[in-house]
Amino acid sequence: xxxxxxxxxxxxxxxxxxxxxxxxxxxxxxxxxxxxxxxxxxxxxxxxxxxxxxxxxxxxxxxxxxxxxxxxxxxxxxxxxxxxxxxxxxxxxxxxxxxxxxxxxxxxxxxxxxxxxxxxxxxxxxxxxxxxxxxxxxxxxxxxxxxxxxxxxxxxxxxxxxxxxxxxxxxxxxxxxxxxxxxxxxxxxxxxxxxxxxxxxxxxxxxxxxxxxxxxxxxxxxxxxxxxxxxxxxxxxxxxxxxxxxxxxxxxxxxxxxxxxxxxxxxxxxxxxxxxxxxxxxxxxxxxxxxxxxxxxxxxxxxxxxxxxxxxxxxxxxxxxxxxxxxxxxxxxxxxxxxxxxxxxxxxxxxxxxxxxxxxxxxxxxxxxxxxxxxxxxxxxxxxxxxxxxxxxxxxxxxxxxxxxxxxxxxxxxxxxxxxxxxxxxxxxxxxxxxxxxxxxxxxxxxxxxxxxxxxxxxxxxxxxxxxxxxxxxxxxxxxxxxxxxxxxxxxxxxxxxxxxxxxxxxxxxxxxxxxxxxxxxxxxxxxxxxxxxxxxxxxxxxxxxxxxxxxxxxxxxxxxxxxxxxxxxxxxxxxxxxxxxxxxxxxxxxxxxxxxxxxxxxxxxxxxxxxxxxxxxxxxxxxxxxxxxxxxxxxxxxxxxxxxxxxxxxxxxxxxxxxxxxxxxxxxxxxxxxxxxxxxxxxxxxxxxxxxxxxxxxxxxxxxxxxxxxxxxxxxxxxxxxxxxxxxxxxxxxxx
Amino acid sequence: xxxxxxxxxxxxxxxxxxxxxxxxxxxxxxxxxxxxxxxxxxxxxxxxxxxxxxxxxxxxxxxxxxxxxxxxxxxxxxxxxxxxxxxxxxxxxxxxxxxxxxxxxxxxxxxxxxxxxxxxxxxxxxxxxxxxxxxxxxxxxxxxxxxxxxxxxxxxxxxxxxxxxxxxxxxxxxxxxxxxxxxxxxxxxxxxxxxxxxxxxxxxxxxxxxxxxxxxxxxxxxxxxxxxxx
Lengths: 737, 230
Fold this sequence. Notes:
Number of strands of chain A: 26
Oligomer: heterodimer
Number of helices of chain B: 5
CATH class of the largest domain in chain A: Alpha Beta
Radius of gyration of chain B: 16 Å
Radius of gyration of chain A: 26 Å
Distance between the termini of chain A: 60 Å
Structural class of chain A: alpha+beta
CATH topology of chain B: Rossmann fold
Strand content of chain A: 15-25%
Helix content of chain B: 10-25%
Strand order of the largest sheet of chain A: 8-10-7-11-9-12-13
Shape of chain B: globular
CATH class of chain B: Alpha Beta
Distance between the termini of chain B: 7 Å
Strand order of the largest sheet of chain B: 2-1-3-4-11-10-9-6-7
CATH superfamily of the largest domain in chain A: PurM-like, N-terminal domain
Largest sheet of chain A: 7 strands, mixed
Number of domains of chain A: 3
Number of domains of chain B: 1
Structural class of chain B: alpha/beta
Strand content of chain B: 25-35%
CATH architecture of the largest domain in chain A: 2-Layer Sandwich
Helix content of chain A: 25-40%
């Protein structure tokens, strides 16, 4: 490498040497910049690739697995669903509004590439202490960024989650997901298979924004990160909306062979991945690209991450037809070159070849050797417990007001979640969002889940639990879980403790996915979510996005209590598993064992509920997780505007379990359901058959929320007051009373 | 009898309303790109919701200067029914086919929510046969929907019975709680003097099939079905 080089590279000396060997010569400055970007953690998955192999990818519904822009699953009758989730953590931590907005923009393009119409967005957000002014700033701007961008594109934002935890104070997590519907026979893949095809760059102009966004995302956040603000892209949702319609229309002509989104790594990434997958080559002319700024260098053009750009390959005869479509939608475009059979990525500038590099060299980085080491146990999984709470009524109120339990209405109210006329179950109504397929008797359920507190205490069980909870959430709406896509968020992988967390996480997920026979069809890894100044990494958090299929629109179930007198049934056993629970966090008790995740228990409970809903027994269903049984019941009562009376003595449990365990433990494999009285014994019989512990614990009433122990009352609250506490908590913190 | 749904760049409720008219109501309907729209070809028109021209400058103002609006003006004079929903209402206001202004919601935030709308007059093309005082459950989804007008204009609207829909609370009363965006006089929809041009912020197309309604209702059809009888 030229020592006077003007560019800064993040490659190690070993990697630079490797690049030279593979290329058989010194790379020039532009080529080196391209290698630098493509071998960054963000583009290359060099630390994670090997471990990710462990996740199950096979299944009868899998059409496209990991490795393409999004995973695709078959939902019968030639219908397919494409879905994907990605992180936009680093840009959002620095510039929350545009960072989050462009996260939405990027994920939409990933769905379009598969020739699917994007029909739903979801976002999984993590912030620090909601009381801190920095967190408030991040929260308000991230939500507004998502709302402004998503709403304008006409894609409803239908699901998500928000978690608050001190570890996200500097490094907030912004994971954005999208799903789309399409037809199996019309599916396209982002690969260049046909030499001679014309390459067209469409949409936004290429500018200097976002250059080296991916290398920025492959570093920890420090004081200098403020200087990285120019590495955050600026979005334009209006152009995105036009690009969506134009892309789908162009694909309908049958003349387009592939579409690829320009995201991290810009043109370099798109060209190298497409030609590498198609075992072809590329020849492009950088002079013809429509740019937004004067005097851009080849390096800048090749690495720009300007938003709203798509790359098309078109058969030569179809060129005119396709260009007419772009013109009608008022989109700028450049015909930048063609697919070749040379096996090389060639870029010309001022009639000179300035890049000539095999695409495989770019897309197949050397693996990074990382060491995994279990951290010293922070706290012994001690058996000590806090005093038994004496005022359970009040405790339930306080829990309802904790930010991780309180209503997130303030968030999803700002999202258009109705556009598209598909949203059957809306945010807040149920454990997952449900979108119908217009004109068909079927729908999909989708949910994002993770509990960072549990994942931190026990990355293996925590992540296995995240998979299980996400599955339970779609099951509670009446769906069968059919596939996941995930987004891993961790600290610096060069830190052996972080790498150990990552390995445990994937192992835990893999165990649960295999056990539930659910394939993973895609994913994204975000490392370096660390604050350089304090050295604090985020709690390990892999977001699981679960997709479920509903094959009868009449059986869609939400969480609201429906009618006085109906039986309340608890499926699954409650264990003494309060470690990392909302209850222990509230009383600041740092000990206890977090919930274990056991495949056989999940399978029994899930199969019971799926069958019970299909048999038409169930009137409301809610997964029992955050806050435990007490909070699950409270949410069902608040949503249904009805009361309930349950006897905690009837909860299936082991003998040594205390009352606080019963009401607040966040054990896995549990559901609370309601059923008309005559069906109650049928549900119990079904549970016995499937091997799930189950009991009728009480019934729906017309007034209060009441819990007894046998005959003695241990909690009683008014539903209206609970509702008010639950609804007002977050607005009071974020906006003021 | 034919209805046109006019598509501007950035319209995003066009396909939704097309689905309701074509599949639910089985009305002959065309999606018409704004530059191709000719009033003579149609008996009625719909300006759908969305973010025409990205809401740049001000919601609805750029579309208001589209040639399609000159055609809409002709249709309005001919007495043909025209409905503008959400962004379509904003366009009708910006093109001065309807009076007043739609400002940022009082909360300064986008609001997506099912609300209660009371029918204030059935003397319009779109509300005929709906008993006055009927409460409709229909969602809103907008950032700029706070209806505002000068005192003289408000007086005229009232005197001429041009206030078609008002936001009300659960019990059907005009209250602060029932008024989601802070609209003047709780106005959710108005018509012109001729009573054939109607603008409203709520989205009837999102409330036209029971499966989509938390109340298992299809109140939006009460308005949209009027296109059947053009």
